[in-house]
Specification:
Layout lengths: L3 H18 L3 H7 L3 H32 L46 E6 L13 E3 L4 E5 L2 E16 L8 E10 L10 E7 L15 E7 L5 E7 L9 E4 L13 E8 L2 E6 L2 E6 L12 E18 L4 H7 L2 E4 L16 H13 L5 E6 L6 H23 L6 E5 L12 H7 L1 E6 L1
Parallel strand pairs: 15-16
Antiparallel strand pairs: 1-13, 2-4, 3-4, 4-13, 5-10, 5-13, 6-7, 6-13, 7-8, 8-9, 10-11, 11-12, 14-17, 15-17
Helix pairs in contact: 1-3, 5-6
Length: 434
């Protein structure tokens, strides 16, 4: 940094003060001859220092303006990092949805058939959700931070899926969650638990509840961790635990995270957004372990879009042999036509088949549930099919000449539009071999 101009100002101020007092600065320094002169010179020195300090500040301000797009050299105010509560009606989204390309290492492919789904759209705001049970409390809320209905829970209680789940060896679990402030007005973290329950009609208590379990925990400061356990003699020494001590993977208050869990017999993979956090090949090495319930507990969060699906998609056989592929792994927000990035694994799987047989043409159909007007659903389904085509071309290099699109709206349901699961079955994308 060059300070010559400020030193020049400093000297001018001193000279000016000296001239006004008609004194000899050198004499002042040597003899301290005049109190009046002392005062004048001291004032001049103060002005000089003020000019230097102001000049330094101006220099930083000018640098900040000229270095547009670079980090400011001024420290941020502490309150600039504080985030608003999700319930604030005029709040903006806490994070920007990443592009599909950001998920280029995301190899998660959801199960083929949806057996459980809840986005709380069937529940009244303020009510406890119908498909769940609790020994604490929770309520359905909305927030301008993110669209849709959310189940909000705060406290040390648990909220569990009321009906037992009939889960085979291979299945996937997905949900969106937003960590929020707890009872002490700070982020509380939360626990997600997949268990094999003992009490089929109520709550299994304790630190290691049920016959067996997998715990995914977000600590109060955001660190993700896991624990597996088997409460039997043969499983005594088989429990696992660990955490991801990487701060850029810590969850933050009021940010939305998409969690994907892929179970294949004894193996569990868990993804947070596009990142695989944990891959446990021998999480449950005892054949008798069969999970049948999920629950959220011990903290504070808002959760939605809970989806459990079974069966590994056989993309090649369905498309090339049977001539029709129905997929539930391409996601959109409510009433939106933008493909969500967590669709990457499914799209990559489909594109791999299409690129291996470059002479095959397919027609892409979009389908919706019956919520909303018929005409709006028809238009939405057409736009969604077009978005799928665009992503297959842009992100995976599929020739657009081979892809034709159309939408059928709500006109061809595969299930009654009477439950969240059935509506999820009707929201689908179909690929028809031409």
């Amino acid at each position: 940094m060059k300070t010559y101009p400020f030193l020049f100002v400093f000297l001018l101020c001193i000279i000016s003060a000296s001239a006004d007092a008609q004194i000899d600065i050198k004499g002042k320094v040597k003899n301290q001859s005049s109190n009046r002169a002392n005062n004048k010179v001291d004032q001049g020195i103060d002005k000089g220092f003020d000019a230097v300090e102001d000049g330094v500040k101006d220099l930083f301000k000018k640098k900040k303006k000229s270095d547009e797009g670079e980090q400011s050299e001024e420290p941020a105010e502490e309150n600039e990092t504080e985030e608003q509560e999700p319930e604030v009606s005029d709040a903006k989204p806490a994070s920007v949805t990443p592009s599909l390309q950001a998920y280029s290492k995301f190899d998660f492919i959801p199960g083929e058939k949806v057996i459980f789904y809840d986005d709380f759209s069937q529940d009244a705001i303020g009510d406890f959700p119908a498909l769940w049970n609790t020994n604490g409390s929770a309520e359905v809320v909305t927030t301008n931070l993110f669209p849709g209905n959310w189940m909000k829970f705060i406290g040390r209680g648990a909220i569990w899926s009321d009906a037992q789940l009939q889960l085979p060896e291979n299945y996937t679990i997905e949900y969106d969650i937003i960590p929020i402030k707890g009872e002490d007005a700070n982020m509380a973290g939360y626990d997600f638990r997949l268990i094999q329950c003992i009490n089929q009609k109520s709550y299994d208590s304790g630190a290691v509840p049920g016959k067996a379990g997998f715990l995914f925990s977000i600590e109060y400061f955001g660190r993700p961790s896991y624990r597996t356990y088997i409460n039997s003699d043969e499983g005594d020494e088989l429990g696992l635990s660990g955490h991801k001590d990487q701060e850029d993977l810590y969850q933050r208050e009021n940010q939305k995270y998409h969690i994907s869990i892929w179970v294949q017999k004894a193996r569990i993979r868990l993804y947070q957004n596009e990142t695989k956090l944990f891959d446990l090949p021998r999480a449950f090495a005892v054949p008798s372990v069969k999970m049948d319930r999920i629950r959220f507990e011990e903290g504070a969060g808002m959760v939605s879009n809970i989806r459990i699906a079974v069966g590994a998609p056989d993309t090649r056989n369905k498309l090339m042999t049977e001539g029709k592929l129905v997929t539930y792994g391409i996601y959109f927000d409510v009433n939106k036509d933008v493909v969500k990035p967590e669709s990457y694994g499914t799209l990559k799987d489909i594109a791999a088949v299409l690129n291996e047989v470059p002479d095959v043409k397919v027609k892409i159909y979009g389908h919706t549930d019956s919520d909303g007007a018929d005409a709006a659903n028809l238009d939405l389904s057409k736009r969604r099919a077009a978005s799928v085509k665009a992503e297959l071309s842009k992100s995976f290099g599929v020739n657009t000449d081979r892809l034709v699109t159309d939408g059928l709206g709500e006109s061809q349901p595969v299930a009654p539009n009477d439950t969240p699961v059935n509506k999820a079955l009707n929201r689908r994308v179909e690929f028809i071999k031409l």
